[in-house]
Amino acid sequence: MESLQLVAAYGRAPELPIGRFTGFSAISSLERLELMESLMGQDEPLRLLQTFAGWVVNFLPVCRLEYSHRGQDQLLVEGPQGEMQLLIPLQDRLNHNMGELCYGLTAPLQQHHHRLLQQLHQILIYPLRLLLRIEEMDLLSRQDHLTGIGNRASFDESLARAIDLSQRQDNGLLLLLLDLDHFKQINDTHGHPVGDRVLVRFASLANQAIRSTDLAFRLGGDEFALLLQPADPFAAHRVASRLQHLLAQDSELSAWQVDFSFGHAAWQAGMDAQSLYQQADQQLYLNKARPR
Asked: How far is CA 51 from the centre of its chain?
């Protein structure tokens, strides 16, 4: 009998035969309570959705299920596309958007199937809304409020993770510390609103100068950091050169003569986060003190 596979499910059995959907049995009050308790027991949206998927395939002729939210797709039930597809937006009564579920079906849904699916979604909506909100707040707590890149707390956590990864598999880790030159003069001459625009634009250009696998942070004031991983010993200078080129091409920042100094350090076995940071900071201090 053909079967489908739940992707890392946290609920019902991972393999469920499609052939069992020859009949229909309504979900009972006890099952609704059990589903709600299963969903409320999850601590992140993906696990909640995987648990939900484990229930859906028990009640409906579903052979594939995908979740999409904020441009990201997550496969919940891996199987063939199915004869039909059903796309359902997830919204609460206040029309908060929580993504959408795309069902691959082995057969058209009957009226009672639609009623059941609506019932299941009603159970899903509020636990999902809660976890998405918690995830959003967690993300905001790690974002710099002005530039939108990572803040100091995010930097500390990311640096610790990067070092842990290097200890297990060293593919090269570089830390760059960046400091805007004469930023106080820009603030004093043009005012703090212009200074804020400089910081926002510089952060954007720093993000453009690195790969999608690298990370950018604002540590505070006009101090920034970049984590490059994996990275070869010359990656720091390539990134700095790209950023210099982007600054020169930016009409607004070049008019304000925005420039930066940087120091970098490559992780080596035995180094902790503090020693890596201190090495990069010491080089930044020496480079900033040099006459230009």
From this structure: 21
